[in-house]
Amino acid sequence: MLVYGSTTTESTLTLRLRGGPPRRRVTFTRNTVDNEHLNRKKSKICCIYHTKNECNNEES
């Protein structure tokens, strides 16, 4: 509330919310093949880098 001399004025703020951008969703068609049980070969370590360690030679 603001007071100027003998008059009082009230100011009201309005908060308006806007939604964010819609999230992307994956959709499948009826022609989509479920390859989970098709016995295909898989490589679970395709992205793991293994360094060649030359210090593994145990020389005593």
From TrEMBL:
Keywords for the protein's UniProt record, in alphabetical order: Nucleus
Cellular component, GO annotation: nucleus
GO terms, molecular function: protein phosphatase 1 binding; protein serine/threonine phosphatase inhibitor activity
Source species, domain of life: Eukaryota
Subcellular location: Nucleus
Low complexity: compositionally biased ranges: 1-20
Predominant location category: nucleus
Keyword Nucleus (UniProt): yes
Region (Disordered): 1-26
InterPro entries reported in the protein's UniProt record: PPI_Ypi1 (IPR011107)
UniProt cross-references to Pfam families, sorted A to Z: PPI_Ypi1
Nucleotidyltransferase listed as a keyword: no
Chain's role: Regulator of type 1 phosphatases which maintains protein phosphatase activity under strict control.
Family note: Belongs to the YPI1 family.
Protein's name according to its UniProt entry: Type 1 phosphatases regulator
